[in-house]
Specification:
The structure is a single chain. The protein has 251 residues and is an alpha/beta fold. Helices cover 35% and strands 12% of the residues. The strands form 2 sheets. Strands 3-2-1-6-7-8 form a 6-stranded parallel beta sheet, with helices on both faces. The chain has a two-stranded antiparallel ribbon with strand order 4-5. Helix 10 links the parallel strand 6 and strand 7. Bound molecules: adenosine-5-diphosphoribose (APR) and zinc ion.
């Protein structure tokens, strides 16, 4: 595996919520702690939910935004950012809506499921900017009326992709091209249960890439990965990359 990493011409890193877990940002499907184990996705993460009760949805995402703003990138995010200097080409594709990859120094990150820090009008799509500061929200949020769009007065919505919505077309096309064109993919911290993002590792393998999975749990990728590293991303990934690139990773 180390030789494969050293020889790779184009590496793709595909991350899920697990890469941010060690930053204190909850995942979705971990037992007990996962967001969908504690909150109702159908009442919080669909367009109909927002239409039915915009204040409930906006308030919940304000709580999540506060948690993300208080979080810091962990060693996995930093190792991914440093990897860009060690390989000829690196594409970071994330399902996460936080900005921890960017805050660790990764550039050009492909956000398949949107970016919480980029809210927009629910109706006309006009971008909106959060006020300065971290909202002070209780666990799970509270009902907070969303701001109105300055152009059409419709409610502003979180900049994330909800269940039942399509992925941003440009992001998806970039992800498809990278998955089909890479020679090694690192799938880190994803349960690989949500499509179409979960197709990307299979596309990579089908087009000849080697697949490395980093996840403490078993997933559907176990059977197609060439290497399964059952560890926490913040420990396993820096160790792997230091082994492959030695001092280069200390920059
Ligand atoms: N290091 C690596 N992996 C971890 C860690 C860790 N420290 N902690 C947890 N994991 C793994 C879990 O074992 C799990 O397989 O991260 C994975 C997280 O899976 P999910 O919670 O399902 O998150 P994700 O795969 O990103 O979900 C995909 O589902 O609800 C939607 O839009 C949401 O983008 C999200 C999508
Ligand atoms: Zn509008």
């Amino acid at each position: 595996m180390v030789a494969a990493l050293r020889e790779a011409r184009h590496v793709v890193v595909l991350t899920g919520a697990g890469v941010s877990a060690e930053s204190g940002v909850p995942t979705f499907r971990d037992a007990q702690t996962g967001l969908w184990a504690r909150y109702d996705a159908t009442a919080l993460a669909t367009p109909d939910a927002f239409r039915a009760d915009p204040a409930l949805v906006w308030g919940w995402y304000e709580w999540r935004r506060a948690a993300m703003m208080r979080a810091a990138p962990n060693p996995a995010h930093h190792a991914i950012a440093a990897l860009a200097k060690q390989v000829p080409a690196l594409t970071v594709i994330t399902q996460n809506v936080d900005d921890l990859h960017e805050r660790a120094g990764s550039a050009g990150v492909v956000h398949l499921h949107g970016r919480l820090m980029q809210p927009r009008c629910f109706q006309c799509g006009t971008p909106w900017r959060y006020p300065v500061g971290i909202p002070d929200e209780p666990e799970g949020g509270r009902r907070v009326t969303p701001p109105d769009c300055p152009r059409c007065a419709s409610p502003i919505r979180p900049g994330v992709v909800w269940f039942g919505e399509g992925l941003p077309a440009d992001e998806w096309q970039s992800a498809l091209a990278a998955a089909a064109g890479c020679d090694l993919m690192l799938a880190i911290g994803t349960s690989a249960m949500v499509y179409p993002a979960a197709e990307l590792p299979q596309i990579a393998v089908n087009t000849g890439a080697l697949l490395v999975q980093i996840n403490p749990q078993s997933t559907s990728l176990d059977g197609i990965a060439h290497w399964n590293l059952p560890g926490a991303a913040g420990i396993t990934l820096p160790a792997l990359l230091h082994t492959a690139f030695a001092d280069g990773m200390n920059e």
